[in-house]
# Entry
Amino acid sequence: MKKVYYLVVATLLALVGIVVGSALNGASTTLPVSQSASIVKVESSTDTPAIPPVSATQTTPDSSPLYEVVRVVDGDTIKILLDGKEETVRLIGVDTPETVDPRKAVQCFGIEASKKTKEWLADRSVRIEIDPTQFERDKYSRLLAYVYRDDGLFVNRELIAQGFAHEYTYNIPYKYQSDFQTTERAAREEGRGLWMACPVGEAMPSSPASASASPDSSCTIKGNINASGEKIYHLPGCGSYTKTTIDASRGERMLCTEAEAQQAGWRKALNCS
# Structure
């Protein structure tokens, strides 16, 4: 009887061992490749996502409209086609020697400056930048702007850099004044363009030969040349007299009498009584 009991117990233990062994073997079964990959993918999803590329349509400085250049008037004035009609544009911050004013002789390096602007802009398109620190138009209704050729050439600055123009500030500082003045100093020191070709004081010449003579202390009238090349004289006591400075290299000078000023082609400032 005991043998039968032991035999039954042994049989039961064997069955239990088989069941437990099968369970353990099932738990260690290797997962299919697809299931393993899905686990790895889930774990990697916690990483920081990559920064998306900048959109190709994002606005850039070069995305402003292009305007066809219809004609180059002179070194610092052009005509463009704007909204279907011609618009005259006067470049801000520069003044090239005169070539087209019927009241004046052609100035030193004026023809070269005009040719250079034509070379750069003939049959080209440009972008324009309006400066909020300046008036939108001058008294001749010309649009005042910075001009960039379609390939990015900053025409205003390049005219100064290559010695085809002087830096010019009309009344109040403008956006690129400091840069343009630094650029002019470099052009002058390196003798580029008009700084080499024109004798001192002749790049923007004065009218009579006697203008080069140093005035005596009784000559207190200031002869100024504005951005348009117009000669304007200021008397002591006039509204702009104290802030008007004389730059001999531009052809500006002190005058002794109003008669002398008018005879030489200067007009009286509008804010003089």
About this structure: Residues 2-27 form the longest helix (26 residues).
